[in-house]
Task: structure prediction
Amino acid sequence: MRPLDVLDLDDDLAPEELEVRERVAAWAAERVAPRIAGLFERAEWDRSLARELGALGVLGMHLEGHGCPGGSAVQYGLACTELEAVDSGLRTFVSVQGSLAMSAIHRWGSDEQRARWLPEMAAGEAVGCFGLTEPTAGSDPSSMLTTARREGGGWVLDGAKRWIGMGSIADVAVIWAQTEDGVRGFLVERGAPGFTTEDIVDKLSLRASLQSELRFDGVRLPDDALLPGAEGLRGPFTSLSEARYGIVWGVTGAARDCLERALRHAGGREQFGRPIAGFQLTQQKVAEMAVALGKAQLLALRLGRLKDAGRLRPEQISIGKLDNVRTAQEIARTARTVLGGEGVRAEHAIMRHMANLEAVATYEGTAEVHTLILGAALTGERAFT
Ligand SMILES: Cc1cc2nc3c(=O)[nH]c(=O)nc-3n(C[C@H](O)[C@H](O)[C@H](O)COP(=O)(O)OP(=O)(O)OC[C@H]3O[C@@H](n4cnc5c(N)ncnc54)[C@H](O)[C@@H]3O)c2cc1C
Result:
């Protein structure tokens, strides 16, 4: 039995899917794994990784045209898994850049906007961010206070966004704002007068990543800063679905790394004169973790195949986001116990995964929000308010 693939799902992957997985895993193992504990401890995001991720072909991976790699949804999912097996912060960068910022420009932008930004973003030469959440509008983005009003042939943007991944380093920010025609999206370039940022520095989760507050104080935008195709909250929600899909896969990587470390430790650590792997209670833990991981991997692959077939529905993504994240959290907690005292050390990564998964459980819709999305799909009744 393959302990990290108990359902033999690898046998269902095509050669070009396995190739992506091996390539991304090899890059992450060589370029990031050896220094991720230090990056996390120092709360650093290494800007140079953007270009390397671009060269790896994982930025906007399943988008077509304008320099985007044009891969499949399953290939993208496998890449997310391998990145998050090293650190959720790495996968978060790829999600923010590709699934949120690039997908919004790709889907809702003009030809000029696509040509201006997508090739550079796919190469990792330009960084994007996606600003939906505000200090007083999280789970309920319809309550956003940021406004864009028409003035003199352009727009004036006022308001604030909070928790925005890569916000302070982004060359272009996709910003959602209330207008007299409802919610619309705008491209705001770094350095625009009145646009300031401040990083959120006291995070205990996703420390090897960057989140910021963005403020807009009378920021003047040209007419063509508007994303012409997006009207209403459907605009940002479409990108959120893309990012949630990547999370469904990504967290299986963090969980797999935890299980792998627990198995390794259990085989080598002796107590009461024998490896702790030989105790029934340890075996129950690894058996439960392997079953849970296998089901999470199966769910991710099923959603990936549905997405590649053009049949994936938002509430199905909610099943994956809801269940795979909480499964990964449970696996991380159990794996930690197998390592005993060693399990709380940074060197063993499990506590880092555990801390990261707290943020992953909250962003892109909390467990409560995904439960309500499913509840609405099942009953026809919306229970959000
Ligand atoms: C590390 C990190 C990165 C992020 N990156 C981005 C980003 O790049 N761009 C972006 O726009 N946003 C980003 N976010 C914001 C994220 O999407 C929000 O934090 C999330 O949507 C929850 O909003 P909130 O934090 O305001 O919590 P709240 O909405 O205030 O929720 C607090 C609690 O109340 C619960 N709750 C809310 N409404 C209901 C309800 N109707 N019924 C039951 N329970 C409810 C929630 O589930 C939660 O448990 C990021 C957040 C984090 C932590």
